[in-house]
Amino acid sequence: MPGRALWHEEALTVTGTGEHQHVDTVVVGASQSGLAAGYHLMRRGRPFVLLDTYNRVGDAWRERWDSLRLFTSARYDGLPGMPFPAPRESYPTKDEVADYLEAYAERFRLPVRTGSRVDRLSRRGHMFEIVTGATTFSAENVVVATGAYRIPRVPDISDRLDTSILQLHSSAYRTPSQLRAGGVLVVGAGNSGAEIALEASRDHSTWLSGRDTGQEPTSAGSLADRLLMPVMWLVATRVLRVTNPIGRAVRSHFLEPPRGIPLGRVRRTDLRAAGIVRVPRTVGVQDGLPTLEDGQTLTVSNVVWCTGFRMDLSWIDLPVAGEYGHPVHERGIVSSQPGLYFLGLPFLYSLSSALLGGVGRDAAHIVDHISKRVADTHDRYGVTAGSKPPWPDRPGARERQLPHQEHEERTARWR
Ligand SMILES: Cc1cc2nc3c(=O)[nH]c(=O)nc-3n(C[C@H](O)[C@H](O)[C@H](O)COP(=O)(O)OP(=O)(O)OC[C@H]3O[C@@H](n4cnc5c(N)ncnc54)[C@H](O)[C@@H]3O)c2cc1C
Predict the structure, then answer these.
(1) Which of 51, 52, 132, 313 is the pocket-test mutation for ligand 1 (most atoms within 8 Å of CB)?
(2) For 53-65, how does the pLDDT look when each residue is reduced to its tens digit (9 = 90+)?
(3) Which atom of ligand 1 is nearest to the CA of 116?
(4) Alpha-carbon torsion angle 319, 388, 26, 395, nearest 10
């Protein structure tokens, strides 16, 4: 139901009703990143609310293609406080991830308002104004956790393709049954391109166009992968961080400009064995058909654009955008807009920042910053009307109270 709150204690955190409401912190987006922020805000005793466009927590995953499975095993897919409820070496499906996120929100009784798309974020004095439908929130802090994969990136040449060719972006692709009879050109040879091409090749002649993004040393699910994963995870979380030159070089390689990451599950040999033809980049259109960098024209009935996404910052009425459409921040903290934070972006801090198992550390860092900021503001000005938390506002006080014990007991059941 649109606008429904999942958490009945929300009344404790949000003051005012109807059109104007106030809360200490608004988290925009209640998928994995927003929920991780919510978990830490709850443990810190900070009043907050999570707002999300979808009517159901987890829908960002439910909407991805049917056969999608994680390339990270369940042992690395847990958010803070609740391991992923599956055998450690298994690879959850996208629907299992969605259900896990929903269960997470319910388990910690996070105050999620679903069906609440934020249309505009602006600043008024030292407060932010967050407009969602008929309601305007004011808040001292805003965490933007809306994901890096919001707006499909499709090249302009798509407009010139013949109308008889079915065109889909990977975000709209669900199953091969959507495709028309005839050949399929998959544009973009990263993970989604390789997985969709493999699926399409069962019933269609398939071409996979684009730069080879490389492949990880092991394939998700293999014995070698299980043995090597702990080392790879250590590298993704501890070594490849923006605080060191190697981490910064890898970040800039993948994000400036954005490019596909090495294949995680599908191998080059799988593509060859399936008869998929690897071709150069798709650069133009001739007589309504796609043409490639080497001058070839392909006669196909379908084009699947696996050409990535860009962030949607259009609803943020503040000068935060930097190069390549990424917001300017330092480990998620936007110093030019005190109180504004981003979470869940690729390489926000480390290679694992946009992964289920990596976002928790970034969320904790941001929430530490929020707690400190609010404490400083309170020291300077006294408690702002309407934003006083409903429990003792000492650092760590909330952690020592019931929610922490409750949390530990609940978590133990999931271990
Ligand atoms: C194909 C694919 C495979 C992946 N595989 C893995 C994997 O194997 N392992 C792994 O750990 N990670 C994987 N990831 C990466 C990562 O886990 C996901 O991208 C993840 O969904 C990012 O989470 P998020 O919460 O930051 O953003 P999202 O999941 O995109 O959620 C953003 C939320 O914000 C909401 N929102 C957006 N705009 C607004 C607004 N204006 N107002 C209110 N709400 C808004 C949306 O409704 C949505 O619920 C994969 C990603 C993709 C695309």
Answers:
(1) 52
(2) 999 999 999 999 9
(3) 43
(4) 90
